[in-house]
Amino acid sequence: MSEKLDAIIFGATGFTGELVVEYAVDLLKDLQWGVAGRNESKIKKVLSDIGSKLKQDLNDIPVVIADISDQKSLDLMAKKCKLIINCCGPYRFYGEVVVKACIENGTHHIDLSGEQLFIDKMFEVYHDLAQEKGTYVVSACGFDTIPAEMGVVYVEQNFGGDINSIEMYWENTFDNGSKPLLHYGTWESAVYAFDNFRKSLNVQNKINKSIIEKLPSLRPKLWLNPFMHKTAGLSSYFLPFPQTDRALILRAQRLQHKIEHKRPIQFESYVGFRSFFSAFCLPFRFLTILLMAQCKCTRNLLLKHPKFYTKGMISHEGPTESIRKGHHFALTFKAKGWSSDEPITEKPNKELIARVSGTDPFYGLASIIMLLCAKTILSQSNLMPGSGGVWPASFAFAKTTLIQEMQKQGIKFEIVKS
Hints:
By secondary structure, this protein is of the alpha/beta class. It is built from 17 helices and 15 strands.
């Protein structure tokens, strides 16, 4: 392997890593790519199983041995490619050493993390060094948070004026009433994120102030609706939910205001439930899990008995392919602002409603999006900000063709009302 590979998928034997490898066979067919992990026999079995499923011979795909506990092996892996696709989580425990190896060796890095504290720490510790080394680090390159972030970019591209605010409403539907099973790894990351909830908020505030101390006063003010409510045109009952996409979208707005002198957009997001009872119970379930995550003994209960505490939504086996593909999502964006030929006044005079939708969001779609982000960095870095840095996706990819590439893969972007 004398010539550098374009990309290496690290963590290829994990639940999501295997799916990323499977989709990479088609999406990265024009690139030179490899797979990496600590166990060569397991990696080769993954390649053999996927090859059998796809009826292709994958024996020529390069295999790299790298271990989280061995920094030298991570450095060697980073030196062998232009970009690492990191599927090895929870990132709170295993992510930083990979990011460090990538940046120090001039290699780009993307991951699937929705762990806000990890994402913030990478910005705080490595942003300046990444800029100096000319490497891009972009986290949450899956369902967390690309559909939401690029949905905001899509609204901006199609609004035709100045946007004051965007409210996002997330809905899910399931074929045949199937449970939206998640893999244990997703649950583990979420529990540790709850454990660091307050610390994460403090770090977010610190980073935002480091970008720009104070944003301009925006009117009219967009207030978060803390209560269960409905919204015109949608049938679900909605509640606010602390999602990673909100924090990164607002950070991108701060960056755009500072660097591009653009009026920042106010943003809030909500999650919907078809059942009144499910929506009513969510705050109590969320608070219970949040409180349990603060103490080691009760946190261990959450980690030991995921099925019990999530009513069967989480399992170590993860969702079957049929359940995954029976899960459909829709993000509806309601934007308010002013027409391009009208002055900005106290009351917005224009509204646009857009939607991003797709199937199998947590795993299949997340794997596809991650690979598209990798290809975007490799082929369109000239359209990305600066020459490197630790950026939120909606700032990193705003001027690229990522949305068009997502559309080619069946992820629907549409204007519902203008």
